[in-house]
Amino acid sequence: LVPNPADDVFILTIDRALTGEVRVMDLAGRVALTVPLAVDRARIPTAGLNAGTYLVEVVDRNG
Question: What is the pTM for the complete model shown?
Answer without folding.
Answer: 0.83
